[in-house]
Amino acid sequence: MAVSSVTSEAILFFERGGIGKSMLFADFEAILDGMVGVPEYAGREMRGAYCVVNGRLKVKALVLFLIDFDADGMADHTWNVPLRHLAEHGGPGPDMGAGPIRLACRSQCPVAWHQDQLWDPSMKPGANDFVAARDLLRRRGAKMGLEVDEDLPPDGEVPTLAGQVPTVRPVREEGDPERVRLARTIKELRLRIHTLETGQKEELARLRYARQQKEEILSAQLEKVLTQFKTLKSQNTALREQNDSLKAQAEALRGSLEEQARSLEEQAGRDAARGSRLERLTEQYKLNLEQRLDEERARLAGEIHSREMDVLNRDEVIGQLRAEIADLKRDHLQVAHSGASKMLEKLEDLGLSFIAFHPGAGHVSVGAGQIADYMNNPQAFAARKCLVTEDHYRAWLAHYENPVCQVAVGPEQTPCGKRVIRVDVPNQFKPGVSDCNSNRCPHCRSDSSIDNVLRFR
What we know:
This protein has nine helices and twelve strands. By secondary structure, it is of the alpha+beta class. Residues about 155-175 and about 445 have low confidence and may be disordered.
């Protein structure tokens, strides 16, 4: 059978209902260079497919990539996925008419740090992305401008020279085609299972990351509420003490008044002529006492109110000063980093990429706009790449560098220090469980299975 050396390159964009746009690779390069835009994809992240097609319009290699478009429909200028390199080094994929293709997707990416910029295909019956790409290229390949080898005979025919009798090929055994079909079916099922497992792991990691963030927010809110409760409780205690002091003063004044009233009554009994005058003096004294008590209460209430206002004013002044300090720091950082940002963007336009390695995250690609964030906190940047919180990543890193049992033993509550099995993936690490050996602590019972595993490692 004749083999064609003619190949073409095409780009397909997948939408929710199927393939929405197709073009030649040269047109896609014009989009990447910023010469033209795609207004219908403005502000969206699109799923694209780079296809290498032979002269029979059949796919030989496929790379499934992601690309962002801004609000004007222009492609992300920092996008730098090497499509041709990935297509040449992709893993085995399904048969799309010209034998098993070379496939590069999220589940099988030959370059690890480009894995986040790829996507996994859907292989469900009735919604198979491979079938959709195959049918569209077969139907519209010639209209798109893909090269077709006209010298090749139709599928299934063998060309012969003039006057030459075509040779009769030996008939293969009946089991051979069936084994080939079963082998390809098994490979497609394995690819589909691997794709589904990868999607489930990513979804589980995202849910675990969201749950951890929610727990941290709730813990911070609870701590804030407890602090406010303690403050209000202390203020309430102080007010009660002041109230008790006022009650004690009132009781003392009342006792003194009663004592004076008794003495006046005794004196009135001795001198009846002066009784009316004593009554008037008693009433006047009571009125004066009540007036003094009211004035004292008003004075204390005014002092309490003024102190509360002073506290509120002080909190407002502190908040304003903190906001001004934050603004000054932000302005200073913007001025300091503007020159560095321009230099980094110039280096990035020249084709340089910034790659950093972190345990658990592997080789991480850092864009020019992410350099400042990465330099401020590399651990937090790596934690986001691993879909865990920063505290979780730091706890895992300590375990990864020194995998020992952290169970407190002995009267001094020191860590056990026995070796445990190391967890290599951050989002599979459970603090308090993965770094503890329940079979060895607190009584250090021997566990032959763990000893054998550690000895083997």
